Amino acid sequence: LAKIGNPNFSIKPDSWYEQNKIKVTLGTLVTGIDPETKTLALSDGESRSYDKLILATGAKSDIPAINGTDLSGVFSIRTFDDISNISASLPKANKVAVIGGGLLGLEAAWEFRKAGKDVTVVQNSNYLMNKQLDTKGSEILQSLAEKSGLSVNGGKGCAELAGENGKVTGVVLKDGSVLEADMVIFSAGIRANLEIAKEAGIETGRFIPVNEKMETGVKDIYACGDCAAYDGKSFGLWNQAIEMGKVAGANAAGDESRYETITPSTFFNGMGTSLFSVGDPGKNGDKKYKSYEVYDEAKKTYEKLYFVNDRFAGGILIGDVKKSSRLLKALKDQETME
To answer: Whole-angstrom Cα distance, residue 193 to residue 208?
Structure first.
């Protein structure tokens, strides 16, 4: 969180859009979609027609509906403005609470700790990264986090935020206790931007459901990226968004392309360790697992491989991640336990 300059997040230079005859309209909202007339209404009063339409509206940070989220000193990390605001407020903060013990929450917590702050991770679950790790892996990670100077408050969760004179002063936990904090960071997942899709009559749940061609339930309208879910799954990952976008673009342009669900994998470096997780961490109660484990308590290294029906289903590496590419290949090839 050093002083931020003016980074350029563009995927392509401006010249690329011009060369490919792509019209880019910035600083303008789509205020309405009419699927019957195939027209878009824009915030500048303009109307545009389409033959095929792709919704790539993304997502925002999921801030829970609790008291105190509007207090000064409360942030999420999603946009460049978020980071700029956090950077400006950081020198005045000493005690930082990070709400959420997933990958992004831990990455944020570690950066604040490196900046010399007193940091506590607050979460509902008893276990860190409980979607990517098994119980033992989470326990190992927590011990490493605490050894590196982070505090972990699990199993209680945040009930509301306390404040004084419009400024956050603490996190009220669900057991009634209060954790002092002069900065609070929410890292509790994402919420898809669905408003424009709903107004257009497109079916939505937590996300916009799409088929393998990225088609929505409305003819000639596609969706991709963080706003969309295929086969009920949305991982909120960059590689998923890229693959979905390619498939949506190809099909909208008249080609034939089908999306295959990505295999989610996780890398983490921090708190004096490295971590890799891929596939199923052995937590589905409907499956019967066989597993292979190597744990070195002194070195804090952990390797756990899970198999279902004698096929590799997922694995965890902590402390030594040299085998990560090997596990990715094993999962892709559905290798046997032997």
So the answer is: 9
